[in-house]
Design goal:
- Strand 4 and strand 5 form a beta hairpin.
- The strands form two sheets. Strands 2, 3, 6, 7, 8 and 10 form a six-stranded mixed sheet that branches.
- The protein is mostly beta strands and 136 residues long.
């Protein structure tokens, strides 16, 4: 069998308005957007191997198990005038297998993430979902 293309939707529930965000493609920003007061979503095309591995240029890895996607923020997303230079790390290795089966059938899987840290600035480092993975 061949790898199966699937779509993951990363939604920032409350991004900081006026801040630029983008996905990280290889080592560069991909299609940056400036946040408004509304939630901000990124649809991430990846491939799911028959053995469960996550593949594609948006997928990062750390160790044998951990797989994640970066959202770039501020200068990291190409806004060189921004006061922030951050990345948010979104884990994908822990998506439940039953949901991955649905994604193989064409369902989009979405996770809702906080866009701001406790101090009100853009959330960064490993960002934990406010609503876990679900069918969008």
């Amino acid at each position: 069998m061949a790898d199966t293309p699937i779509t993951l939707r990363l939604t920032l529930a409350d991004p900081v308005p006026g801040v630029r965000y983008s996905l990280q493609l290889d080592d560069a920003p991909h299609e940056p957007v400036t946040a408004s007061e509304t939630p901000l979503s990124f649809d991430v095309p990846i491939r799911l191997a028959d053995d469960g591995r996550f593949l594609g240029p948006f997928v990062r890895r750390e160790g044998k198990e951990r797989r994640f996607i970066y959202i770039r923020i501020g200068t990291s997303a190409g806004d060189h005038a921004s006061e922030w230079s951050r990345r948010a790390k979104i884990d994908i290795h822990d998506i439940p297998p039953a949901l991955l089966d649905k994604a193989r059938g064409g369902a989009v899987l979405e996770v809702i993430l906080p866009g701001r840290g406790k101090d009100g600035t853009p959330a960064c480092a490993t960002v934990r979902p406010t609503v876990g993975w679900r069918i969008s």
